Amino acid sequence: MNALLTHPGTQYAPHLASELELHGALGRFVTGLAVTEDRLFGLLEHLAPPSWRPYWDNRRIAGVPSARLHTFPTLELRALWQLRRRKSPEAVFYRRNAAFQRMIPDRWIEEATHVIGFDTSSWLLADRCRAIGRMFVLDQSIGHPRVGECVYSELRNRFPEWSDTIPRKSELHLACEDREHAAAHVIVAPSEFVRKTLLDQGVAEEKIRVIPFGTDLRMFRPAKSPPRPPMVFLYAGALTARKGVPILLAAWKRASLGPRAELWLSGSGHLPPSITKPKGVRLLGKLSRCELADAMRRAHVFVFPSLFEGLAQVQVEALATGLPVIGTISSGAEDLVHPGETGFVLTAGSIDELANCLLQLAANGDMVHTMREKCIASRWLRSWSRYGEQWFDLLSRVCVEAH
């Protein structure tokens, strides 16, 4: 097996690259700006001050030899410069992704047994694979974009004060993702929610496989003992309407838990000027991965009421840390949470359901403790190695099916 893995940014692609390398299945990993640990800069980076390291959190490629890593750093640096100049993110990433696909040589595609690309950055690559008879596997990281646009439209009407946090895609960019779905031989979705959105938009059921994300179990590990009162509900993610922050704030007000509980909000962004921070809410700002892992060890429950995701990886991280998760169907929580045992799966957008859930857990510390123990007992399910095994099994099967 000789897989060509392509991703113009990083996200979780480095973890897939290292897992494929462990299974002897990685031919090349092509990305924008990254460095392996066996290159000089990768070695020097370990000597850098800790304050520098968050800038490279998603750029260090562990477990992949430099001979298998191919980068186009000028594309990424140009995109980052344009974003700093406040250019439209949608336009910036579209141009970067198109250029990235064109820079991949035909020879690399021809030498591969499988080509793996990611949503929003594979419409040209998928066509090229079809043209020369190579199997193209699309990694669909989030729900179908046309379903997303319907959700975003409803959010703009429901929460107009949050409208500048709600994305909007042009028809051109939606059509590019339609091309990816049509040309892909296999589509890997991270959750049942994503699978359903693809089916709703007419994607063939036989194309779709579900493989949930993993996480770093060494970083996201439980505290040695449960945290003390007051009960802390932790949210981690951008402070946007899509992530359900206005739902969470409204539910928190309705639950009116008083001094027995706190709500910690971590992530980039800020509350709209018209929104007053409710009592008991702490804004932690954007945290590094290490800082987030530490915050999770000091919390009791993780809450993530997102209205549109793929599978929010912070939920995986929370469960691995021993935190029961309050998620939604749209956050991908159905694939992770056993309701009543390791958390709850709510209807996205329901303030009443979320408020009642907050009240129930805040009043029942014994239930939270029991859930914590069950999360810890099942944390082995959250590893990147399990994720890699499922990918390797999939690629092995589809290779046999193709022949």
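The record above closes out task 2.4. Task 2.5 opens with a second protein, given below.
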Amino acid sequence: MIERNWDLPPLTMRDASAANPADELDFARPLTAAAPRFDVPPGPFGVPCPSEGPGNGVLEAWRAAALTAGFPLP
């Protein structure tokens, strides 16, 4: 698709033999039906990520493990 839009040669043999997805689109024909509407329940979905925000203890645990293993830390 990019090659056709900007008149570029294909970069690889795969590009040269690939079908152009734009060939399947027909912009001259108007839409015959509207897109379906879906009911989406209101959130929140799930729970916040445990790494959100400072002070959750994860970084402190990693730091302690690194120091225990002998890694020098600033």
